[in-house]
Amino acid sequence: MNWRRFLSLVAVPTLAIVLALVVGAIIMILSSPLIRGFDIGLPLVAYWALLQGAFSSFNSIVSTLVDATPLILAGLAVGIGFKAGLFNIGGQGQFLMGALAAAAVGAGLAHESPFVAAPLAILAGLIAGAIYGAIPGFLKAYTGAHEVVTTIMLNYVALYIVAWAIVGPLHLVGATFARSSDVGNAALPVVIGNNGHLGILFAVITIPAAWWLLFRSTVGFEIRTVGASPDAARYAGMRPRRLIVLTMTICGMLAGLAGAGEILGLSHFMPAAYSTNVGFDGITVALLGRSHPVGILLAGLLLGAMRAGSGLMQIQAGTPVQMVDVLQGAILFFLTAELLVRYIFRLRAGTIVPEEVQTVTRSYGGQTTP
Prior knowledge:
- By secondary structure, this protein is mostly helical.
- It contains 15 helices and two strands.
- The longest helix is centred in the middle third of the chain and has 30 residues, at 114-143.
- The chain is globular.
């Protein structure tokens, strides 16, 4: 292993986390008079409570895993796109379509055998997410429409499709708010702790599968080649257009699986106004994990731990749970401002620019049609 290259890749993400914690500490100190009087030690209390809430007990660790699972899947949905030179901002829409399909099929099979209902509901989420990911992939490959624009637009389309479906054909008559019927026997069983449903295995399975796809399969080699240079890939006999559609389909499938897992494992029904940022949080996970499956796993666990521990942080330190969003936003800022991080810590500029940085740069600087 090239340790110098490894350290170069992990240095900026690690330091971005450190800087984000510093920014969070400053915000806590400046806002402490509004909470408990001016207290310079408030950040230490808050961060210690955050750690306790995420890791102090078996159930808290399980909660961390549950919160991390959709983030890992959404991170893979973005990270695999980065490998192909694609900026998939549509994870939110793909997540919602997967959740809606799983809720619909789950409700329809609510009284069937769990061994039939749950797999079919999961399959429905996979297919719906894959189709919703394939749409911007097709538009990118055959019309030149930029995936950033089309995926953002499709996110809003997904919101309204969910609202229409839940208020209309999937509406549960007599419910106090607009929601679908309970998925019944299609629900994923709790297998560990208080809320550790079977969907945790989705992340366990997809991480090695994504690693094998990207680094051990012919398709993965072609995806990475297209991401590095579409012209070189075409000259080598590859089909960039087909690979773009395939990559976005895989990304949508992963995001759809995340949505299906949330519905079948936690809520067991779909509300008309489904509030979640998992699709967008996947961008932070992918950037923090450098688009590598193992890095995405670690980044997803970090953000999952922050979410699992935010409740205890609010109880013990009086710090609002929204501080986790502030920390996540600061991490994302420092990840995208890599030159600033390197300047602050006097690091030499990296000789290898990660795929995700190249993709984000090209997305704002323009890119030729494959």
